[in-house]
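Supplementary Methods, section 5.1.

A reviewer requested that the exact input to the structure prediction be made available. We therefore reproduce it here, unchanged from the version used in the analyses.
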Amino acid sequence: MPLLTTGLSGLVGSKLAQSYQDKYDFINLDTAHPIHPTDITDLDQVKWAVSHSSAEFIIHFAAFTDVNKAWQDRDNKSGLTYQVNVGGTDNLVKAASEMNHHLIHISTAFVFDGDKPNLYQETDQPHPIEWYGQTKAWAEEIVQSADCPWTILRIDFPFRSDPFPRPDIVRKTLTAVDQGLPLFSNHFFGPTFIDDFVKVIDWVIRTKTRGLFHASSGESWSDYQLGQAIMTTLHRQNQIKSADLNQYLETSDRPYQRNTALDCSKLISMLDFPLTTINRALKLVNFDHEKSSS
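The structure derived from this sequence is encoded token-by-token as follows.
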């Protein structure tokens, strides 16, 4: 089955390609494509690629996700963050609408301000406080107004079982612990186990499910708690220092959400498979590379 994708070489997209290489024929819209390079910020190129494919689904992974660099580029609609996250999404929506393709858009919990004391639900109104989140919120609005079938999947701080060149939240946390860096005890998020998330994407395709879904673990963790859990998984006794997010924010120019944990009960009630708990997922993580490099 052919699938059109963007960002297939990234942390999340590459796991989908790896896990479902025998089920789907992936056609990635990318400037590095050897035959038909496609820049998603170029509408003509996107329309050509979509119109010349028999795929019924487009999975949009590609995004500018460096939050710190995005903040430096804030309010600049000519900048890369806006052009990729908003302009690229708009082009895909236009092309998908012309061909009536089903667009699966990968979004983020950073569309919220982080002030909610408990899990964010799909009914909560987005209120981004930094440029990355703002551009992703605008992208969601574009998708929701599309004249084609669409599904939005929000995730938060993803990690995967196998190593990847770009460190994920679990590898970053392990590195911080090994370096003796303190971890926030009052910053909360909802880790997303990518091995599960790609199964969610496959489920959306299989069932042709539409709408907005939170698709992380449905759990809430602090950085400190995650560090402790990693140490427990590795049977190590490292002493982890606790840090205060409020003190950090006094010295930071960029806004930082206190909580991005997502309520995934809507998705869980519909899935035909169970999600893996984070504690169980940590046991499935291959830490051999991190052990050898340390």
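DSSP finds twelve helices and twelve strands in the chain. These observations are discussed further in the main text.
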